[in-house]
Amino acid sequence: MKYETYNEEETKRIGYELGRRAQAGEVYCLKGDLGTGKTVFTKGFAEGLGITEHITSPTFTIINEYREGRIPLYHFDVYRIGDSDEMYDIGYEEYIDGDGICLIEWAELIEDIIPKDAKWIVIEKDLTKEDICYRKIEVI
Predict the structure, then answer these.
(1) This prediction's pTM
(2) What is the CATH number of domain 2-139?
(3) CA 12 to CA 98: how far, in whole Å?
């Protein structure tokens, strides 16, 4: 599926719809440059799961856990991970094989340990567009 958005609310709404339909055990991988809207998308995704907590990117903590929704959400930001082995040190397998949904920002950095059935969400800016809020979102 491919989408185009022109503001943060539209990006958030796509996340919301995917979160609303998400099932326990699924893994969602977010790929996009800095500032493309990965965290905005995640906020919508969390709302779709019924999570009302404030969502922040776990850039320094690597993972934030949100358990108040209909399914637990494990939100990873692996931008600062040196290699895939570090993921096992933080309990990656328990999360991936657990009862919730894993949403991983910068997942391409650990692609070798991402499950084959993971869903990839690619968010891109198009610098040729005059609208600086424009995003192209593809769900693979």
Answers:
(1) 0.94
(2) 3.40.50.300
(3) 26
Q: In what order do the strands lie in the sheet with 63-66?
A: 2-5, 135-139, 119-124, 27-31, 101-105, 73-77, 63-66
For residue 135, the Cα-to-chain-centroid distance in whole angstroms is 15
Instruction: For strands 119-124 and 135-139, give the pairing.
Output: antiparallel
29-43: per-residue pLDDT in tens?
999 999 899 999 999
Cβ(134)–Cβ(5) under 8 Å?
yes
CA distances (Å), 31 to each of 10, 11, 36, 82, in order? 18, 14, 9, 17
